[in-house]
Amino acid sequence: MGLFSKYEEPGKGVPKNPDQKLPFFRFFELYFGHFSKLILLNFIYIICFLPMFAGIIVMQLFISEDSNLYYLAFYLIVILSGIIIGPATCSLAKLTRNMSIEKPTFLWHDFWDTFKTNFKQGAIMGVIDMLFISAVTVSFPMYYNMAESSNIFYIPFAVCLICSVLFLMMHFYIYFLIVTTDLGLWKILKNSFLLTAIDIKSSVINLVVTVIVLVLVVIFFPFTAILIIIIPTLLLFLYAFNCYPVIRKYVIQPYYDERGERNPEFDYVDEDGETVFVDAPELEEEPPKKEGGLLPKRESGSNSTPKSSGSGKRKKTIR
Questions:
Q1: Residue 219 has pLDDT above 60, yes or no
Q2: What are the beta bridge partners of residue 219?
Q3: b/e map 14-44, b = 16+ CB within 10 Å
Q4: Which of 1, 142, 275, 304 is least surrounded by Cβ atoms within 10 Å, i.e. has the fewest?
Q5: Mind listing the pLDDT tens digit for each residue in 221-247?
Q6: 33-to-25, 73, 241 alpha-carbon distances in Å
């Protein structure tokens, strides 16, 4: 979609959008429409950081800050905390994705269900993320201090900066691909890199907004500490709004096109791109009543999803 792009921009597999609002206004309408849920989602997400904070507090009780063991233990706790933070970020990504495309969400159940379903890949990616963050926090000050004595060290400093920015931009897609597809982690990283390059406009918008938010938080800290209950889902919702349509267009839709199948995400529109169900209460008639005032029983088979054929192997790779 893109924050400043046309949702109805022509492209293979992209249906006509009945809502003609500009994406910029559509974003804020969706965000504030789900604001209370997003706040609650932030609190659930913060719970997953408590083991890391608890580990650091316990460590400080037994290890002196002057020893090298202190820093070793600190970074070890941070890196291992990725085992929990990674799957939690998968849950955050899936729920914000569903809200951005207006799919029904059940916060507590969906969060922990996604946590369990994507635990393996999420834990590996979480450890990679925390390892990368730990390496960056060490390398940036080190190369900067070394560059003061020799300009040659500005080269590794610049390399670290470029790698950090690129890795951050890949995260606009990584966790959404984990919860949306059944691809291996290496292919997810590869596709995240390619999608970042394909839709560089959305990636730059996400990057600029992220940097502005984080800089403002740092400048006005500790007054901005309260924003911890807003910022994680705000940023993930922005990434979902901008980047999930790119994933749908270049990853999900080609999967169904190759098999000649209809993308189930588009079941709410007909072949002409018009909505199948229109809310028009003035055209509705009161349904007939049976004796005793009870409505006719709805057939159990109506409006239900097709069951699996039970043929064995799972063919679908899009979730």
A1: yes
A2: none
A3: bbebeeeeebeebbeebbeebeebbeebbeb
A4: 304
A5: 877 788 888 889 999 999 999 999 999
A6: 12, 43, 14
**Backbone torsions φ then ψ of 270, nearest 5 degrees:** -90, -175
Mean of all residue pLDDT scores within the chain:
79
Contact 260, 74 (CB under 8 A): no
